Each structure stands twice: as C-alpha cells, then as structure tokens.
Amino acid sequence: LKFNVINKQALSHIIKIKKLEVNEQDVNTNILETHKTEIPIIYDLKQNYPNPFNLETLIKYQLPEDCKVVLSIFNVLGQEIRTLVREGKKAGYYSVKWDGKDKNGISVSSGLYIYKLKAGSFIKSRKMLLLK
User: Fold this and answer.
1) CA 21, CA 105: separation in Å to the nearest integer?
2) Residues 89-106: b if buried by 16+ CB within 10 A, e if exposed
3) What pTM value is reported for the model?
4) Is 10 helix (H, G, I), strand (E, B) or coil?
5) Does residue 9 surpass a pLDDT of 50?
6) Most CB atoms closer than 10 Å: which of 49, 66, 76, 89?
C-alpha cells in the first residue's frame, strides 16, 4: 500500500503487511515495516537550537532538490570560521551540529556568529549566540 499526502511538503508512506487475515467478523493485520520518505517543497535554513548555546548547537536545513551545499560559520567581521558542509546532497531534511570550534579545532570565543547556507541558487544566513 502506498499513501501520498501533500501539505507544505511531500510525504509518502510505504507500509509492508506481513499477515492479513480476513473472516466474516474482523480483520487482523501485523505491520512488518513502515518507511516514511519526506521531500520538502522549498529551500530553508532553520534557526539553530539551542540559541544561545554553550557547548554545541544544531543547525537544520532542507532541500527540495539535489544540489551542491555549502554551510559555513562566520564571525561578525565576515571572516569564515568553519565550513560544516561542502558537498552534493540529495533532496531532503538535514541537520548538522557545530561544536563551537574553528577549522583548526580551537574553541572560539563567546559572541555573535552568522551561519550561511548556499544550496544551488538559494542563499540564506542567520545569527546565533555562543555563550561560555
């Protein structure tokens, strides 16, 4: 069985049925496996969580199509601190953790940082606050 639902995002659910018994009074089903595949319809870069953060933070983004992705962290002077993602990605939902360290593995100081997503022709940036 396959169910398709469209509501702000494309969802498809595939359910494999292990056993189906039908008699005059009841239906008994045992579901062997359920698999959910989601494909967003828009590009987006979510606000990191938690924000402000101390040790690490989670950054989520979504891609409606396969594309090259670059997700980088910058200080308020515009200097690149670290690139978290630089690769081709399939359409879908993604999350990546930032541990508050620069590209050399050194912890950065408390302050305001900007993270920027470039995915195909989509570009979006957001602010986050690191507190130690």
Assistant:
1) 58
2) beeeebeeebebeeeeee
3) 0.72
4) strand
5) no
6) 89
